[in-house]
Amino acid sequence: MSFEISLSGKTAVITGSNSGIGLGIARELARAGADIVLNSFTDSEEDHALAKEIADETGVTARYIPADMSKGDQCRDLITKAGVCDILVNNAGIQHVAGIPEFPTEKWDAILAINLSSAFHTTAVALPMMRKAGWGRVLNIASAHGLTASPYKSAYIAAKHGIVGLTKTTALETAKEPITANAICPGYVLTPIVEKQIPDTMKEYDMSREEVIEKVMLTRQPSKEFATVEQMGGTATFLCSEAAAQITGTTISVDGGWTAL
Ligand code: NAD
Question: Do 62 and 55 meet the contact criterion of CB atoms below 8 Å apart?
């Protein structure tokens, strides 16, 4: 048996997908034939234009559905409005950097809600749809920080370790069904969430942009290269293939060797 990857006839819902890794994954899944539901909390012309661009480029059906992933009921509504969800990519995420005593409670709450609880809510509605369809893939975008820690990122690291745990439980609850659940753990990928951290880190360490990238960000990434959104998309597509049907409840690192250190 050979393993060609065709996701034609499947629908993928990707949370937080109007930029960065989510958009990269959406584009790759669309290239493999999946219909796409893009999401973020905004509802702009640009958001809807992204869906049209993917549809024009690949010939799949692509929609944009706004929903705020910090709100449990909106997470659930997103999947209900999608109507079908064969592939669920829990990708929405935010970051805040501060020591624990100074860490604002509202940032802690928002990070836990968007980066972790949203995946619980979307999965709760998507699993019955996958069961009805007789096939499903849950892909949780964790992080190298789902497996290791760094200072000043307490909420993010707690949420990302949490989503790895949720992934394992999802896999065990679906183990006897043609449904898998896995977490992708990227190292540093140069997307808006990372761009936003550069100016503060430049100030904190009195470094240039290049020094921050080389000496702070990529210091733990032995390849000394950012991973790319296309690589995240390719990994997601592979996990949706039949070759990956027995891969479940695990983490796949795409981190240039970070977690080997
Ligand atoms: P990004 O800022 O480009 O993307 C985050 C996405 O989440 C955006 O589309 C944003 O609109 C969306 N989002 C934020 N708040 C939301 C909300 N309340 N409701 C709905 N959508 C919301 O950053 P990214 O790097 O593409 O991050 C995507 C995921 O990858 C995140 O979970 C992040 O933690 C994870 N990740 C990123 C890196 C990296 O280096 N970039 C590394 C490891 C893990």
Answer: yes
